[in-house]
Write a structure and sequence with these properties.
This protein is of the alpha+beta class and 285 residues long. The protein is built from 8 helices and 8 strands. The radius of gyration is 19 Å and the shape is globular.
Length: 285
C-alpha cells in the first residue's frame, strides 16, 4: 500500500488537478454568488426580513432543490455602514445583500437551477422581492482562502466586507486573477492587517464556458473579509496599506469596486457535520 511518503497524497486530496491556482480548475466544489436589489417600492428593511424569515426557509423546504446546496449563507447590508471605506471603493450603489451557495461541482449548478421546481416554486418567490431589471450581480467561482485559521469559525451574525470586482474587457483572464490573488495575499498577510481579520477569501469567477445564463454576468471576483469585530473593521478601513491596495484594485479593474458591509445569516451548513468527499474547502498547496 502506498503512503504519503511514497508520493501518494491520500484519498482526502482527490481533487485531481495539475493547475497551481483554484480558478484554473473546473473540478470539485464551486460557489454561486448573487448580489441583488429589492423590487420597486420595497424598503430595505422589508427586503431583509422577507429574505431571512420567508425566502430562505422556503428554499430549504423544497428538498428537490435544496438537496444540492452544501452550504447556504445570506448577507444583509447594514444601513449606513460605510465605516470610512477607502475613497477608491464605490460607496453608493443599489445592491443591498447577497446569497452564497456552495455546490459539489460546476455540473451541479446547471442541474440545480434547471430543476422544474426552480421555475415553478423558487423563481416566483424571487419575483416578490428581488428586482428583475438586470441589476443583479451573479457569479460562479472557486474560493481561494487566504486566511482560514479556524475552520469552525461561527459565521452567524458576523460582519463581512464584500468587494465586488470586474475584469476589464480585453484583459487576460489568468493575468487578472493571478495579480488579484498575489496582491491580496501580500496585503492581507501583513501582520497588522491579518490581526484584524478572522478570515479572508478571494472568490474567482470560473473560466468560460459556464452554465447557460452565466456567461455575460458582470462580476469576475469577490474579495470577502471577515473582521474580528466592528472595531477591527474600522481599523482595517483606516489603514494606509488597505487604502493603497483598494486604489491598486480600482486601477486594475478600471472602476471603483463596489463595497458592501453586511451581516451574515447562515441558513444551512452541511459542511460542519459532513465534509466534502470530492474536494476539501481549503485550497492549500
Amino acid at each position: 500500500m502506498s503512503t504519503v511518503e511514497d508520493g501518494d497524497p491520500g484519498p482526502w486530496v482527490d481533487y485531481a488537478r495539475s493547475e497551481r491556482e483554484p480558478w484554473q480548475s473546473r473540478t470539485g466544489i464551486v460557489k454561486f454568488l448573487e448580489f441583488v436589489v429589492p423590487v420597486d417600492g420595497m424598503s430595505e428593511r422589508a427586503f431583509h426580513i422577507y429574505c431571512q424569515r420567508h425566502h430562505s426557509a422556503h428554499v430549504m423546504n423544497i428538498t428537490e432543490f435544496s438537496q444540492f446546496m452544501r452550504k447556504y449563507n445570506t448577507g444583509h447590508r447594514l444601513p449606513g455602514a460605510t465605516v470610512n471605506l477607502p475613497a477608491a471603493l464605490a460607496h453608493e450603489h443599489p445592491l443591498v445583500g447577497g446569497a452564497e451557495v456552495w455546490l459539489n461541482s460546476i455540473e451541479e449548478v446547471e442541474t440545480w437551477l434547471g430543476k422544474p421546481v426552480y421555475e415553478s416554486l423558487i423563481r416566483p418567490d424571487e419575483l416578490r422581492f428581488i428586482a428583475q431589471d438586470g441589476s443583479a450581480q451573479i457569479m460562479v467561482g472557486k474560493e481561494n482562502r487566504i486566511i482560514d485559521d479556524n475552520p469552525d469559525l461561527e459565521e452567524q451574525n458576523r460582519l463581512k466586507l464584500y468587494l465586488l470586482a470586474r475584469r476589464p474587457a480585453g484583459t487576460d483572464y489568468d493575468s487578472f486573477h493571478e495579480k488579484l490573488a498575489t496582491d491580496a495575499r501580500e496585503l492581507l498577510l501583513q501582520p497588522a492587517i491579518r490581526g484584524l481579520l478572522a478570515k479572508a477569501v478571494v472568490t474567482h469567477r470560473l473560466r468560460d464556458p459556464l452554465p447557460a445564463g452565466f456567461e455575460t454576468m458582470p462580476l469576475d471576483a469577490v474579495v470577502e473579509l471577515w473582521p474580528r469585530d466592528a472595531d477591527a473593521l474600522r481599523s482595517l478601513c483606516s489603514t494606509d496599506a488597505f487604502a493603497a491596495w483598494t486604489s491598486v484594485l480600482a486601477a486594475m479593474t478600471q472602476e471603483a469596486p463596489r463595497a458592501l458591509v453586511a451581516r451574515m445569516h447562515v441558513v444551512h451548513d452541511e459542511f460542519s457535520f459532513q465534509p466534502s468527499l470530492t474536494q476539501p474547502l481549503t485550497f492549500t498547496w
